[in-house]
Amino acid sequence: MAVPESTRAAYPHARTTAYNDPLKGVYYGPGCVSDALPKLLDRLGAKKALIVTGKSLSQKTDVIKKVEEILRKRDAYGATFIDIGQHTPVAGIDAGLKQFKEVGADVIVAVGGGSPIDAAKAILYFHQQETGGETLKQIAIPTTLSAAEYSNGAGYTNKEGVKTAVSSIDIAPAGVILDAELTVSTPERLWLSTGIRALDHAVESLTRPLVPIPVKYMFYQAIADLFTYLPLSKAEPSNITYRQKLQIASWMSIWPIQFPKYSAIGLSHALGHKLGAAYGIPHGITSCLTLAPVVALKAALPPPASTDEDKEWLANSLFYLRLESTGSKAGDVKKLSELIAKLVVDLDLKSTLEEYKVPKEDLPTVAELAVGVKGHPLHDVIVKLLQQL
């Protein structure tokens, strides 16, 4: 029997999917760090760890002390490096690499949000470049919902203040520990806004090239859980059950896939990277600013800028949110954008570019950097979008 042309169009060529090769395990559950960290050290054959984190987590909470104690019991504690700032300035990476070598560490335990986890990836990347040997490993213990622990790219800010990145399958964390008890001291705005960042991952990945179809259905569950548990977590900040469900939703929002070639997440992420690095806007807040307007733009744009298939993937989110269709794909995508905008408001995360002192005259450059080329057909449309933020 002949295969219909419509089916061939939907599946243009055979695909295979691999998961991040270094990943040896994801442990989750309240209090699991005590058992999970020693198990991962054994699995990796690691002898001495450098903890990489930020100043606030180290100086204002007992989270780092708990991790240090676990490592000391194993005689695996090397040192704690805390000079990692927002958006991962390269100076912190250089200093972290220096301390990594000085203490003779063979593994990094990164604790915190996306900045220390990305810093750890970059440190390991540059260490391998210097030594020419194997890439050493990272164990990630996230305390936010940004999901940096599942990617093999490390974004950081160079000396010129421009966001740049290194990428290698070998620098993806070899182990991830999702212990909700360690997130209770995370500031509310950071916790909730990185939840919107996870929502950004899930929503934009529905139309991301090369994402396997079964994984997209996992994104729908992530979207549903984030819409459900972010407001509940705001109402009950100490509820560990809600926090654990959000950590798992964050995991589902991006899933550790090894792409055969580069696959950009989407316009909301691209704009967020440029705005964040240049103007000091936290990544969670950039998603609060850009995700809903970008989804609305997807609803309005005609093919090929926004295909019917893309609209269908986004529109189907309403089913998983237990909401009725508006009767059209474009209408459903518009409704999704409105729901995202309302969630941001309900979480008290609404802000503007003006609050972060982003000059209006800079917006054409931001748009150009986000799309990566001059003369992009959507440049003016994106500038108009930015002007409304």
UniProtKB/TrEMBL annotation:
PROSITE patterns reported in the protein's UniProt record: ADH_IRON_2
InterPro entries: ADH_Fe/GldA, ADH_Fe_C, ADH_Fe_CS, Alcohol_dehydrogenase_Fe
Keywords: Oxidoreductase
GO molecular function (one): alcohol dehydrogenase (NAD+) activity
Domain Fe-containing alcohol dehydrogenase-like C-terminal: 193-371
One Gene Ontology cellular component annotation held by this UniProt entry: mitochondrion
Domain of life of the source: Eukaryota
Residue ranges constituting the Alcohol dehydrogenase iron-type/glycerol dehydrogenase GldA domain according to the UniProt record: 26-179
PANTHER family to which the protein is assigned, alphabetical: ALCOHOL DEHYDROGENASE, ALCOHOL DEHYDROGENASE IRON-TYPE_GLYCEROL DEHYDROGENASE GLDA DOMAIN-CONTAINING PROTEIN
Name by which UniProt lists this protein: Uncharacterized protein
Originating organism: Steccherinum ochraceum
Biological classification of the source: Eukaryota, Fungi, Dikarya, Basidiomycota, Agaricomycotina
